[in-house]
Amino acid sequence: MLSVPxxxxxxxxxxxxxxxxxxxxxxxxxxxxxxLLYKKLNINSNKIENFxxxxxxxFTSYIDGNISTFLEIFEEQEYEYIxxxxxxxxxxxxxxxxxxxxxxxxxSYFKNLNLINKYIGVEPIEYNFKILFLNTFSKxxxxxxxxxxxxxKGVTFTNTTLSNSxxxxxxxxxxxxxxxxxxxxxxxxxxxxxxxxxxxxxGAEYEILEQNLKLIENKVKYFAIEFxxxxxxxxxxxxxxxxxxxxxxxxxxxxxxxxxxxxxxKNL
Length: 268
Description:
Number of domains: 1
Low-confidence stretches: 1-9, 40-45, 160-165
Distance between the termini: 36 Å
Strand content: 25-35%
Strand order of the largest sheet: 5-4-3-10-11-13-12
CATH topology: Rossmann fold
């Protein structure tokens, strides 16, 4: 059962601080000061709290969608397919590239199971990014307050609401910087084994797959890609090529009119 205790930032900071070196401490304190200022401004009156769920504590907010996303991952076991694989193959850890990281629930889920080695999180919405930082900060974490896209020229989003429903559009008003999938893979050049790629980027997944299919086939061991507007897009055109090298399974989310395609490389 979910409970919402008081936000204990002092304890949270100390537990991280005692495990950091000088440079990491400076970077962490800088982010903390920025976050506290952001929290003080109380953007859109959205409170930031920490949830306690069993033995796991994560920071979150009451933005529409955040709580339902939390329950999908922790209660409905959205990533059970990947979890079962790790148990069956006795996989001790993997590197997680989390595109559309939101506030870091995917990280918290697998980290709680001691399965994450290195983590790369990509989240374009600044408010979510501040919470993502708190949930994922460590020496093995790299975060981008950017959107995943096919180039570095930046994109615009359709709206500026603090939710998880923003999407890339030429008519958008919110300009954000972008990062490519190739750049994310390059961060793991020296540690590229067992990469789990998660993509949940509100409709831009089609362009990303079209431009990066070979890269995904050669670099990724497991993936979870969420496809939106499946009634308007021929998503099979994009997913069928993946089935040549991956064993796949579809998980349809009727209330969101989307599906998650899970894949496990056939070499495993």
